[in-house]
Amino acid sequence: MTALSRQIIAVVPAAGVGSRMQADKPKQYLRIYGKTILEHTVGALLSYPPVKRVILAVAENDPYLRRLPLARDSRIQIVSGGETRAESVLNGLKAIENPERIQVLVHDAARPCITHEDLDKLLRVTDENGAILALPAVDTIKTSDVRQQIIRTEDRNFIWLAQTPQFFRADVLLRALEQALAQGFNITDEASAMELAGFRPHLVTGRSDNIKVTRPEDLALAEFYLSQKNKIK
Ligand SMILES: Nc1ccn([C@@H]2O[C@H](COP(=O)(O)OP(=O)(O)OP(=O)(O)O)[C@@H](O)[C@H]2O)c(=O)n1
Ligand SMILES: C[C@](O)(CO)[C@H](O)COP(=O)(O)O
Questions:
Q1: Percent of the chain beyond pLDDT 70?
Q2: Mind telling me which InterPro entries this protein's record contains (predicted)?
């Protein structure tokens, strides 16, 4: 089976509490232009023709999802999230039947501004290493000690900021993530599990508007970028 003939499924970790957002509900359920951030994100994935199905990992006892039409969409499968983002992703991957026939796009629920053009770029990578969207660093990068004093300035020509989606063969990523978590590594994205398993994922240059809504000030930014993307206003 070739990479091009594998079916594509999106796995969306959406089980976070959004502590840095300091809102009255998890940030994926905050609304922009009448729709939750989660609906914007999943909508962008489901309207992309190669994506046939979305697996959503949500917190156990989540009271918000069931109020959304998403919860009744036959293209969406809901699984329980975990304690960490990596565990939520792992639960999503475990729900995939015949993972050797599937490629996954893992995409944060909190990144609603993803474009189909960026997804096209990722899907052009067809080897087993997989690929992630990322941004080349534009600022000067410092490494600090524990007292927050600079110990080094990095060569930023080789520094990239990882985004999602991250695109891998489902069976390969499942094994890599299981191994990395079993060995106690703190895994903050899928590529790091693949790296630990000996792969060299490709860095595909993304867009700076593919933000992860994290802090309160990010909401206005996401609203602006979505208005540009969809010309909603
Ligand atoms: N146990 C967790 C933690 C995070 N996530 C998801 O992973 C994505 C990226 O995580 P982050 O932006 O850090 O979200 P939160 O963990 O919700 O935010 P915070 O760290 O501020 O609490 C989000 O879509 C979030 O819902 C998840 O599915 N399961
Ligand atoms: C996966 C990710 O979006 C890449 O930038 C990011 O690491 C997830 O954020 P978290 O705060 O570590 O959950």
A1: 97
A2: IspD, IspD/TarI, IspD/TarI_cytidylyltransf_bact, ISPD_synthase_CS, Nucleotide-diphossugar_trans
What is the Å distance from ligand 1's center to 163 Cα? 13
d(CA 188, CA 34): 30
Residue 214: phi, psi to the nearest 5? -125, -45
Q: Which helix (H) or strand (E) holds 170?
A: helix 170-182
Whether residue 232 has pLDDT greater than 50: no
Q: pLDDT tens, 110-153? A: 999 999 999 999 999 989 999 999 999 999 999 999 999 999 99
Distance of CA 40 to the CA centre of its chain: 14
Of the bound ligands, which one is closest to the alpha carbon of residue 135? Answer: 2
Q: Which CATH number fits domain 3-230: 3.40.50.300, 3.90.550.10, 3.40.50.11720, 3.40.50.720?
A: 3.90.550.10
State the ipTM, two decimals. Answer: 0.98
Query: What pTM value is reported for the model?
Result: 0.96
DSSP state of 190: H
Collapsing DSSP to helix, strand or coil, 7 comes out as strand
Atom of ligand 1 nearest to the CA of 26: 17
What are the tokens at 148? 């927050």
Contact 111, 164 (CB under 8 A): yes
Residue nearest to atom 16 of ligand 1 (CA): 16
Domain boundaries, the chain: 3-230
